């Protein structure tokens, strides 16, 4: 059953033709990608894609309220949208951002990892791997416009990008906080962080589950730029222009040179990584930690 969900999402989206606003995403109009008339949109309800063919740039906006958790559907739709952009030679760059105010992404969807079947966990983990691989090795220039808090899986998405712009708001912390939940960031999450901030900073951040506020995030290099909140998108567009000034083939080969060894480590042992995840997540103690954490989040309001 669980295996069919991804396939259903895939089929529904592959059949969806490129289309123009407001038909594709009812209720959304205007030059959201900053390109005026040329802006075209496609995507799915949870992963909006606004494209500016004249500039060769697209914006992927995550829209899975309330917290942009990365459910199986979001992961699947994200991969499909990315693949469409990769396959269309019009596009050379993509900005990844959020449509949920104040939240870039709350990370992996904890409800997908709690109280579900082994088959579901396996399908979910494969989808997490797939998104990471696609983003990490994308031929496009990928820039994160981080306009909200970005823990764990949200941070991972940012780390796969070529450049990170974070909005300057003390609430918008970013980091791999898995240990705070009583779980462990997998080796490829760890590798992505080490490749960004270096071994010592990564070791300390991972063990303590640190979530860095903007100034600290910039200091340790987990983000590349911190800008006033209303300038995140324009700053990302400026950075994009600089990266797009480099010839694609040279930049892509260099990116591949830097990243492929890390990606290959996962590719070579994808099934083993899934088995490890299954064993880990199915432990009673881990399920209990996740339930306690989810309950705490839910009770916060009450
Ligand atoms: C071998 C490897 C094994 C395992 C590796 C597994 C790796 C996991 C990586 C991850 O990404 S785990 C997820 C880590 N995420 C977090 O720790 C973030 C948790 N969320 C928050 O801290 C807060 O929700 C927020 C700061 C993002 C937003 O705060 P606020 O605006 O106050 O919203 P609420 O806290 O009230 O949340 C609203 C609603 O959303 C639910 N929710 C929050 N986060 C998640 C999540 N990650 N997955 C699923 N659901 C989430 C929360 O429970 C609330 O639900 P209600 O039913 O009460 O509405």
Automatic annotation (TrEMBL):
InterPro entries: ClpP/crotonase-like_dom_sf, Enoyl-CoA_hyd/isom_CS, Enoyl-CoA_hydra/iso
SUPFAM superfamilies: ClpP/crotonase
EC number: 5.3.3.8
Keyword ATP-binding among record annotations: no
Subcellular location: Mitochondrion matrix
Keywords: Acetylation, Fatty acid metabolism, Isomerase, Lipid metabolism, Mitochondrion, Transit peptide
Any GO BP annotation: fatty acid beta-oxidation
Catalytic activity: (3Z)-dodecenoyl-CoA = (2E)-dodecenoyl-CoA; (2E)-tetradecenoyl-CoA = (3Z)-tetradecenoyl-CoA; (3Z)-hexenoyl-CoA = (2E)-hexenoyl-CoA; (3Z)-octenoyl-CoA = (2E)-octenoyl-CoA
GO cellular component annotations of the record: mitochondrial matrix
UniProt family annotation: Belongs to the enoyl-CoA hydratase/isomerase family.
PANTHER family on file: ENOYL-COA DELTA ISOMERASE 1, MITOCHONDRIAL, ENOYL-COA HYDRATASE-RELATED
Protein name (database record): Enoyl-CoA delta isomerase 1, mitochondrial
Organism expressing this protein natively: Lynx pardinus (Iberian lynx)
